[in-house]
C-alpha cells in the first residue's frame, strides 16, 4: 500500500494583509505571512491517520521547519511590540520557545516516533499562526 499523496504544500508567502503594528510604525520586520495557508498545512498533517513512509515524514519535517523558521520571527517581533505585562505577548513568546525546542529535537528511532514529532511540529505551527493572528488583528479566524 502506498502512502497518500502529500497535500500541495507551497512555501509561506507574503500577503497584502492589514499592516502589523510594526509595519504601521515603519520598523524593519519580516514580511507578513499567509497564516491561512500555514494553518491548512498544519491541519492536513495532523488529521492524517495513516502511517506514512519515511520519505513523506522527512519531507513534512523539512517543510514544517521552513515554515516555522519564517513564522517565528514575525510572531516574535509582533509580540515584543506589546506591553511587557501583556498576556498575549507572554503566551506568544512561550509558544516560540516551545517551537524552537521542538525544532532542535530529533525524534526517537522509528516511524511512529517520527510521525508523532512531525505532528507536534504541525500543532506548533498552527498555534503560532493563532498567536500571529491574535497579535495582528485581535481575533482568531472563524471568530469574526
Explain how this protein is built.
The chain has five helices and no strands. Helix 2 packs antiparallel against helix 5 (111-137), helix 3 (54-80) runs antiparallel to helix 4 (87-104) and helix 3 (54-80) packs parallel to helix 5 (111-137). It has one domain. 62% of the residues lie in helices and 0% in strands. It is mainly alpha-helical.
Quick rundown:
The protein has 144 residues and is mainly α. It is built from five helices and no strands. It has helices at residues 21-25, 35-47, 54-80, 87-104, 111-137.
Secondary structure blueprint with pairings:
Blueprint: H1 21-25, H2 35-47, H3 54-80, H4 87-104, H5 111-137
Helix pairs in contact: 2-5, 3-4, 3-5, 4-5
Question: What portion of residues is helical?
Answer: 55-70%
Largest beta sheet, briefly? none
Shape field: elongated
Give the helix tally: 5
Strand portion, in percent?
under 5%
Category from helices, strands and their pairing = mainly alpha
Distance between the termini: 42 Å
- Over all CA atoms, what is the radius of gyration? 16 Å
**Tally of DSSP β-strands:** 0
Which blocks of ≥5 consecutive residues have pLDDT under 50?
A: 1-25
The succession of helices and strands, N to C, reads HHHHH
Q: Provide the residue-averaged pLDDT.
A: 78
What is the domain total for the residues?
1
